[in-house]
Amino acid sequence: MALDELKSAIPDFAKDLKLNLGSVIGNSELPQQQLWGTVLACAIASRSPKVLKELEPEAQANLKPEAYQAAKSAAAIMAMNNVFYRTRHLLSDPEYGTMRAGLRMNVIGNPGVEKVDFELWSLAVSAINGCGQCLDSHEQVLRQAGVDRATIQEAVKIAAVIQAVGVTLDAEAVLASAE
């Protein structure tokens, strides 16, 4: 199992990450599609080759092809949107917020899976990428669709743990290559 391999690669000083990784994936109450779509989108967003290599096969095995593609689409579109909207928010000139984005985002309107699932994956990726405006937007859509806060928090916990595992493993790889 790739998840076990990933957990075994986590160094002892990051034991909490190992425990949390097993918990957020192994004990998640999210439905299978929401869970593995969140895992895949976050693995991509983490930018960690090791994390993606280990988690992608398991995600693919647990997702229907359309959900697999939609999770990858969520990671891709949010990679763009998070930079754009975070920048708009951070610039002190409010005029940027009134300007048309002019960026194609068709997949958000027609993701090929339940809108709630895609929104959840987009929210998790936005958490990794640190875009408050996108987090607020996706959280509002989810809440209006009847998704409870516990489900939203579950996706954010998955994002946090996967990101932390990626940072830790990538840092260890760099440190080991410097020896």
From TrEMBL:
Q: What catalytic reaction does the record list?
A: N(6)-[(R)-dihydrolipoyl]-L-lysyl-[lipoyl-carrier protein] + a hydroperoxide = N(6)-[(R)-lipoyl]-L-lysyl-[lipoyl-carrier protein] + an alcohol + H2O
Which Pfam family is an annotated match for this chain, by its short name?
CMD
Catalytic EC class:
oxidoreductase
Sorted alphabetically, which InterPro entries does this protein's record hold? AhpD (IPR004674), AhpD-like (IPR029032), AhpD_core (IPR004675), CMD-like (IPR003779)
Q: Where is the active site?
A: C131 (proton donor), C134 (cysteine sulfenic acid (-soh) intermediate)
Annotated EC: 1.11.1.28
Which cysteines form disulfides? Answer: C131-C134
Q: Which NCBIfam families match?
A: ahpD (TIGR00777), ahpD_dom (TIGR00778)
* Protein name as annotated: Alkyl hydroperoxide reductase AhpD
Write down the species: Streptomyces venezuelae (strain ATCC 10712 / CBS 650.69 / DSM 40230 / JCM 4526 / NBRC 13096 / PD 04745)
What's the source species' lineage? Bacteria, Bacillati, Actinomycetota, Actinomycetes, Kitasatosporales
